[in-house]
Amino acid sequence: MTKKVLYIDLDNTLVDFASGIARLSAEDTETYRGNYDDAPGIFALMDPMPGAIEAHAELATLFDTYLLSTAPWKNPTAWSDKLLWVQRHIGLEEGTPAHKRLILSHHKHLNRGDSLADSRDARGAREFAGEWLQFGAGDFGDWAATVAYWRGRA
């Protein structure tokens, strides 16, 4: 039986963006205020959201799971930092749940699949042809609730 395709965003979904802001230098905090995602190296400073790594591991057994994120156009370190974050927290080696399953795109709606978990409706999430679940809002405020919802839909 073919598994359903599930995309999961990184920023504020698997990754705690605020934890990176808290680790910026005072100078970078001031320089990039209002545009923190343009701060060089910020994506390397972030922690996982509570329960995110365990949730991803379980969902990867139930779905054909991919990470679908956007990297800021004006921050070239973000592209490599996001890959390194995935490798560090989810796995580098073949056979780990995210091995070669990271997609960076400014047009998430161009990906085909059954479901997308994303904290924001930007970058094509709202136009995604499958189900868009807004992580962190309403009934999907944390990973425990989100995984419980998807267990019944696998």
Explain how this protein is built.
By secondary structure, the chain is of the alpha/beta class. It contains five helices and seven strands; from the N terminus they run ββααβαβαβββα. It starts with a strand and ends with a helix.
Concise account of the structure shown:
By secondary structure, the chain is of the alpha/beta class.
**What order do the strands of the largest sheet run in, or round the barrel if closed?**
5-4-1-6-7
Helical residue percent? 25-40%
Oligomerization status of the protein chains: single chain
Supply Rg: 15 Å
Straight-line distance between termini:
11 Å
Strand content: 15-25%
Keywords:
two-stranded antiparallel ribbon; alpha/beta; 5 helices; 154 residues; five-stranded parallel beta sheet
Layout of strands and helices, then pairs:
Blueprint: E1 5-8, E2 15-16, H1 17-22, H2 26-31, E3 47-48, H3 52-62, E4 64-69, H4 76-89, E5 102-104, E6 115-118, E7 131-134, H5 143-151
Parallel strand pairs: 1-4, 1-6, 4-5, 6-7
Antiparallel strand pairs: 2-3
Helix pairs in contact: 3-5
